[in-house]
Design brief:
By secondary structure, the protein is an alpha/beta fold. The protein is elongated and about 70 Å long. The longest helix is centred in the last third of the chain and has 27 residues. It is built from 8 helices and 7 strands. Strand 4, helix 3 and strand 5 form a beta-alpha-beta unit.
Amino acid sequence: MKYYPVFLNLQDKKVVIVGGGKIAERKALALIKAGASVTVVSPDLTSRLMQLRDRKSIQHVSRLYRKKDIQGAFVVIAATDSTEINSRVSKDAEGLVNVVDVPPLCNFIAPSVIQRGAFTLAISTSGASPALAKTIRKELEKLYGPEIGVYLKFINGIRIRALAEITEQSAREKFLKGLASEKMLQMLRAKGIQEVKKTVQGKLDKLVKSLFQGCHSRSS
């Protein structure tokens, strides 16, 4: 089966998780981080899910699943240890539904994810081998460490400044393209974020100064 990769905006969207075990806990934590409004349907919860409930980070329906539980849900996740209940959830869902580790019952699957601030990298084997996706994720985590998220936040600020201060479009585009070059990533890994910040800010200052002087000389 082939899948269309997509990133969902779940801010304030209703998401229902059926199940209260460790898998449900992991899903809930990721969904809360994405800004979703999470409801967990299960007679029992892990201690972490109970903490989330007590802090009102999730809503809890303390009983076995009923069809009405998923009405109006933007996303539904079935994460119980019951094949029968998971199959019912899949059948009842009218929108996006994921039955954990059972691709035939899903209309979307969750990839293995690396999250570094605003940088998100998703790895999928289209359900063929979630274990291999996890192995590849671990390899890529070594390549893209926390510094990539810090750098992305930094260049977002630099981009705002460049748009305001570099009036010549071709020069601005060349500068911004350079920020995302392989050379900059290599410098980030080899020399660290502080050295990269110093280099980028120096280049921007130099470029802005040269453009200003050029403009001033032409007007004279």
